[in-house]
Amino acid sequence: MNIEKVLILGLNGGFGKLFSNLLAEEGLSIFGIDLAPQPDKLAKCARYLCGDLSQPDENMLAIARQVDCLLICLPESVAFVALEHFIPAMSADALIVDTLSVKTTLAQKVTNIREDLQLLSINPMFAPDLGFRDNNVVTVQLSSGLRSDNFISLMQKWGAHVTSMTASEHDRQTAITQVATHAAIISFGICLTELGYDPNKALPISTPVHRTLLALFARITNQAPEIYWRIQVDNPYAAQAREAMSASLKQLADMAYANHQQEFYNALTRSKETLSPCLEELIAYASRIFQI
User: Fold this and answer.
1) How far apart are CA 238 and CA 104, in angstroms?
2) How does DSSP classify residue 55?
3) Helix, strand, or coil here: 187?
4) Does the structural domain 5-165 have CATH classification 3.40.50.720?
5) 145 near 115, Cβ under 8 Å?
6) How is the chain split into domains, by residue range?
7) Max Cα separation, the chain?
8) pTM for the whole thing?
9) Per-residue pLDDT of the chain (292 residues; tens, 9 = 90+)
């Protein structure tokens, strides 16, 4: 059961444009809906409608009835409202794919609503400008089928490393890989401002580690802040991740204040052991980054 017609909600967004191009190259018919009067010049679609997806009109729902895949590239607040309208309109055995960053809430809302639909929730663990090649994608199959398998195969064909998880596993792990990671980098950036950071003075004497962390923070500031805000507040395990981050920084401060050198060494050793399964690979990766 192949996918032939795809309706992308949020066509003009980063992932909407990325998917429209890749799916069009596969020979699929692409339809798109977004708020702008015209489709983005980088998006590809056979037919485009301008409209508010939280209040879809009959023309939008009519397209939904024709396609065999609905691809949702929307913020959570809009996505859930749109789903209430579009799920009843989909034909039997159609596939619904979303790119939301939090999965447990979605699973609670959509599971068992319509047992004749295939529901595939994905989280591309990269910004859309990087593309799928050699990047990671998490899939949560809420209701599997041949079309969901076909969609996963397409992402693998595009070069993605695909890992399947449950909704709960996804949110627990992304609380580490996204919430804690972003919190560390954003906190670093806030700290620079508090310290009166002057790039003209600091960069000439900066280390590779500093420039790398600075570059990561710069990249975050160049993206839509809504993305990072939603990750921090929507993940049900986000508070736990930030509390652990805060406690770790306090632990380091306490070691330095009390001059507990051996305790510092022991903490680094324990952390190194945590990374032992992939330590050599990560060290080599850091070397490649610094060589650049």
Assistant:
1) 13
2) S
3) helix
4) yes
5) no
6) 5-165, 169-259
7) 69
8) 0.90
9) 689 999 999 999 999 999 999 999 999 999 999 999 999 999 999 999 999 999 999 999 999 999 999 999 998 889 999 999 999 999 999 999 999 999 999 999 887 788 899 999 999 999 999 999 999 999 999 999 999 999 999 999 999 999 999 999 999 999 999 999 999 999 999 999 999 999 999 999 999 999 999 999 999 999 889 889 999 999 999 999 999 999 999 999 999 999 999 999 999 999 999 999 999 999 999 999 999 8
In whole angstroms, how far apart are CA 149 and each of 116, 157, 171?
16, 12, 22
Q: How far apart are CA 128 and CA 211, in angstroms?
A: 23
Instruction: Please provide the size of the chain in residues.
Output: 292
With contact defined as beta carbons under 8 Å apart, do 235 and 101 qualify?
yes
What SS3 class is residue 94? coil
Give the Å distances, CA to CA, from 60 to 24, 104, 117, 259, 260. Answer: 20, 28, 19, 65, 64
Tokens linked to 128: 């859309």
CA distance 138 to 25: 23
